[in-house]
Amino acid sequence: MDNMIQNPENPPINCEVQKSKIKLGSHVGMSGKEMFAGSVKEALSYGANTFMIYTGAPQNTRRKELEELNIEAGWKLMKENMIEEFIVHAPYIINPANAANPDIFELAVNFLRLELTRTAAMGSHTLVLHPGSHVGEGREKGIEKIAQCINTVLEDESVCRLPDGTFCNIALETMAGKGSEIGFTLEDLTDIYGKVIKSQFLRVCMDTCHMHDAGYSIATDFESVLLKFDKLLGLSQIAAIHINDSKNPCGARKDRHANIGEGYIGYDALHQIVHHPALLSVPKILETPYRPLPQNPKKSTAPYKEEIAWLLK
């Protein structure tokens, strides 16, 4: 690990893609009086041209009414600054794979329906969803429950219809494989696709840390990962990519994000993914840890402005 941190002064220089086409941003907050407009301002302060939000706290079901989110002002700012799209992340408390507790599964159905409706109403085409954990009931039962949840929600397609008549998709996130998580293999996602009746509304959100921790060669042979993904699902199914380094060796199945260039994936590999010609149109979102302030270690600050600028070199 002595050489794990790489030198930001020497990024790769052989990338020929047009950086203006790359969609790169981070997770941002949404709170206070400005709400969504404040989210856009935060993204702009980082030099981002896309971003990701929660429509409310990820740990509970409390949600402000859509009328309170300042959506129109946020979109006005986006258009003025040529931001074309943003991503919404579903809250962590949704566990559609839970085959053990009917109440938790019912919550997953109802809350996923609500979040999909809110995502579409805000004008986003992508709701990122953790497939969930089977909590000891086994992979097959978990996958059946995930498909059942999504099928129930999508019975009424109007829940994912945007104001302009287009549709929002559910992007299943690739997971690290800790505990009884489902979705840490591409085969898991393929099997979910096969059981969802309206799979045209499904997409995938790749997470570099998660896939690395799950055992995929993100750091050393990303092309082979893409080839396998293309064979099983098709590259067109990638709706978003979470760009994160990892504190763990490949295959650790632990899910601990690291700042760019400070983990086992490294700057070069992540830079390659951000600039990959086959993925230019895919929004890429940083979820890296906040950094302690040198003058006050008890407080921390977002690293996104520096990391975005570094990755765009």
Provide an overview of this structure.
The structure is a single chain. It is built from nine helices and twelve strands. Helix 1 runs parallel beside helix 2 and helix 4 crosses helix 5.
Structural Rg: 19 Å
Helix-and-strand structural type: alpha/beta
Helicity range: 25-40%
What is the element string, with H for helices and E for strands? EHEHEHEHEHEHHEEEHEEEH
Shape: globular
> Strand fraction band?
15-25%
From the N-terminal CA to the C-terminal CA, the straight-line distance is 25 Å
How many E strands?
A: 12
Q: What is the count of DSSP helices, taking H or I runs of 4+ residues?
A: 9
Strand adjacency order, main sheet: 1-2-3-4-5-6-7-10
Mean pLDDT: 93
Uncertain runs: 1-19
Sheet having the most strands? 8 strands, parallel, barrel
Can you give keywords for this protein?
313 residues; 9 helices; globular; eight-stranded parallel barrel
Brief sketch in words of this structure:
The protein has 313 residues and is an alpha/beta fold. 32% of the residues lie in helices and 15% in strands.
List the helices and strands and how they pair.
Blueprint lengths: L23 E4 L8 H10 L5 E3 L17 H10 L6 E3 L12 H21 L3 E4 L9 H15 L15 E5 L12 H10 L6 E6 H7 L7 H11 L5 E6 L1 E2 L10 E2 L8 H8 L9 E3 L4 E3 L2 E6 L2 H8 L2
Parallel strand pairs: 1-2, 1-10, 2-3, 3-4, 4-5, 5-6, 6-7, 7-10
Antiparallel strand pairs: 8-9, 11-12
